[in-house]
Amino acid sequence: MSTQAVETLHIGIFISPNCYIPDIIGVYTVFSVVPNCEIHFIWQNKDLIVGYPYFPMHATTTFAECPMNLDVLCIGASVGMLSDEALTFLAERGNQARYLIGICGGSLILGAVGLLNGYLATASFSLIDELPSFGAIPVKGGEVVVDRNRITASPVSGSFDAGLIVLGKLRGEDAAKEVELTLEYAPHPPYGTGSPELAGVELTQKVMQKYETVFNEFRKAAQRTSEQFLALKA
């Protein structure tokens, strides 16, 4: 009895200087155990870059080498400056990808290059109010938001959830369930404070104040990207 060949999946993970590594690690982890799957860490060159927090790495695939029609293109938050070449790549390949994933501040970057206009979307609770500035419709209180082929999520665990959801769409729920079990992905947070709703007002305000400088850097990066992209299109 013959077994039908499974089409190779091409998963693109966009990296850049100062990209937030926890946002992309879940998508990578999910697809790293999927058969017939090629994962591309994409940047404009293969020079050493440093993600945030300190994480030295190289791209495996340049913009020029990247497959034209990715099955998935994923981006996380970043405070780094993106080149015109990077913005053009994101806008063009994001529209061509079968599924587009934005994690945390990555959702703002997708919006900044016109990929979430009119789409329901989410981001980190500290950044979600910025989404309307980029044409997206914010959805609060949800770790993952799926609108057509755009999947946006809150940071860290949202990356795992988004990856599993997209895997289910590409290979079927049975395959996604198998990977979920393979990874033993069954979060049980020890303190139950992983969202503003769970943490309460006092702790949420404390965290917002403590990391306000970092959150502002993500906001500024998205606004800078939007202005740069609009100038590029003009």
Descriptive overview:
By secondary structure, the chain is of the alpha/beta class. The protein has eight helices and eleven strands. The strands form three sheets. The protein has a seven-stranded mixed beta sheet, with helices on both faces. Helix 1 runs parallel beside helix 4, helix 3 runs parallel beside helix 8 (212-233) and helix 4 (157-171) packs antiparallel against helix 5 (173-182). The longest helix is centred in the last third of the chain and has 22 residues, at 212-233. The protein is globular. The relative contact order is 0.15. The mean pLDDT is 94.
Under the CATH scheme, the architecture is 3-Layer(aba) Sandwich
What average pLDDT do the residues reach?
Answer: 94
The residue fraction in helices comes out at 25-40%
Q: Record the strand order, biggest sheet.
A: 5-2-1-6-7-11-10
Q: How many domains make up the 3D coordinates?
A: 1
Largest sheet: 7 strands, mixed
In total, the number of strands is: 11
What's the CATH topology label? Rossmann fold
Strand residue percentage = 15-25%
Task: Provide a short characterization of the protein structure.
The protein is an alpha/beta fold and 234 residues long.
Secondary structure elements and their pairing?
Blueprint: E1 9-14, H1 21-32, E2 37-43, E3 49-51, E4 55-57, E5 61-62, E6 72-75, H2 84-96, E7 99-103, H3 106-112, E8 120-121, E9 137-138, E10 144-147, E11 150-153, H4 157-171, H5 173-182, H6 196-199, H7 201-210, H8 212-233
Parallel strand pairs: 1-2, 1-6, 2-5, 6-7, 7-11, 8-9
Antiparallel strand pairs: 3-4, 10-11
Helix pairs in contact: 1-4, 3-8, 4-5
